[in-house]
Structures are given as C-alpha cells and as structure tokens.
Amino acid sequence: TMAQRRCLLISNSTTHPSGYLDHCAPMMKAFLGDTVKSILFVPFAIDDCDDYAAVAKKRFETMGYGCTSLHEAEDKPAAVQAAQAMFIGGGNTFRLLSKLHHYKVIEPIQQRVAAGMPYMGASAGSNVACPGIYTTNDMPIVEPPTFKALNLVPFQINAHYLEPDPKSTHKGETRKQRIDQFHEESATPVLGLPEGMMLQVEGDEATLMGKDLPVRIFQQGQDMATAKVNTRVDFLLTGQPVTKKAKPSSN
To answer: How many other β-carbons are positioned within 10 Å of the β-carbon of residue 38?
Structure first.
C-alpha cells in the first residue's frame, strides 16, 4: 500500500553555522523535482504559527516554490487533499501531534502520501512520520490523544542523534541508553539520525543523505549497527526478521 510513498525525513532544519534549511535545500529541490510548484507548510510544532509560516514562506520562495500554511486554511483536511507537496517543520513533537489529531489531518496525510504526494519533515516533522512519537527528545508539554503518529514508515527515528561524550560528567541517560529503554518495551527499529543527516524514502527504498556522519541503527536484541551517508537501509522498510540474542539458560 506504500509502494508510491515518497518521504524526505530530515534530522534538523538548521545546521551550524548556516541558516534555515540551507543544509538540506539542494536535497529538497532534487526530491521535489520539476512538477511541484507549491508546498503546504505545517507550522503546528511551534506556538506562533504566523511567524513560523512567514519564515518558511520566505525560504521556499527563494527556492522557487509557492508556499501556503496549513494553519491559515479554513478546511484543513481539504488543504491536505489539494497539496502538491508537504513540509512539516520542527518544534515540539507532542504539540505537533496534538494539532494533527485536533484538525483531523492524520488520515488525509496518510492517504496523500500513499498516493505519492512528496512528504518532507524536519525534526518533529520526521518524528510524526514514524509509527509513534516514542523516540522524540521533546518534553511532553501537551498531551496528545495518542502517541500513535502518521506511520508513513515502519520504524522510529531519533532526530538530532548525539553520540555519547566520553568526557561528560552528566549523569542522565545517553541517547543510546534511552533508545535501549524503548527496546525494553518495543521491537520497532530505531534510526539514530545525527544533525545534518536525512533519509530519502522512495517506496521500499531508503537512502541516507547529508553530512558524512555515522548513522546508528538500533534493533531489539541486537548490537548497535552503523550505516554511512549515501548507503541504502531498505531493510528498515521491508521489516526483515530480527533474530533475538539467546538468553542465558537459567539452570
């Protein structure tokens, strides 16, 4: 059913020291191709939607695209149905998901992506493309009706993925430890996507793009794996069986 899906899932919208979307603009243009003339922007992860939409519109206009913001549409499901392409911006993932449910656009987005509409997300916008928002780094500042999200891909993303700092005296969990905790509760794989990296999904093909940084792949019961930029990670989409480590026998 997702053979036509096209998703560009970006870890973050701004990479030091460049400006908004600068690091991913060339990939976005290549991903959208020549047919898309206008982008529907979804600003709901940020409180001030007017301000956020103005920033996005200006940025997309410099790239040669028209841009409308979903928060300005009176009939939001209809605006999704009419969109040529969509970009969901970063911010707070809990607030974003709450608004997507509130405005009843979860199903319309799923339908449009299944029909081939290009979907782009950054940070929170990539989190909501996953089965749920279980691996976000954000504080739960609002309570969505469910943690289940768009389920455009069958794996989780941890955006802004940070490698453990061996010199740190910080006693909180490392990102890897938090993902290991997730795998105590769930068998869904997790892609640790560092800043400057993105994943392009075309049907059942998935390609890592962006900076030359290691991308970590976590699967329940397996050692952490590493993938490099410009390599394919299709197995995350096709859901290859995961072999669990043998538990030591208790004699």
So the answer is: 13
Pairing outcome for strands 225-227 and 215-218: antiparallel
Q: Look up residue 203 and give its amino acid.
A: G
Distance between CA atoms of residues 110 and 80, nearest Å: 10
pLDDT along the chain (251 residues), means of 10: 92 81 92 96 97 96 97 98 98 98 98 98 97 97 98 96 80 88 96 96 96 94 94 88 44 43
CB contact set of 52 (below 8 Å; sequence gap of 6+): 43, 46, 89, 91
Name beta bridge partners: 10: 122, 198
Q: In what order do the strands lie in the sheet with 119-122?
A: 66-69, 38-42, 86-88, 119-122, 6-10, 197-202, 205-210
Q: How far apart are CA 227 and CA 207, in angstroms?
A: 10
- In the numeric block, the tokens 């460049």 are attached to 18
- CB atoms under 10 Å from CB of 37, counted, come to 11
| SS3 call for 206 | strand
Q: Which residues, in sequence order, are bridge partners of residue 215?
A: 227
The per-residue DSSP string of 32-98 comes to: HTTT--EEEEE-TTSS-HHHHHHHHHHHHHHTT-EEEEGGG-SSHHHHHHH-S-EEE--S-HHHHHH
Q: Report d(CA 202, CA 192) in Å as an integer.
A: 19
Q: What pTM was estimated for this model as a whole?
A: 0.92
* Catalytic positions: 123, 138, 160
CB atoms within 10 A of CB 10: 30
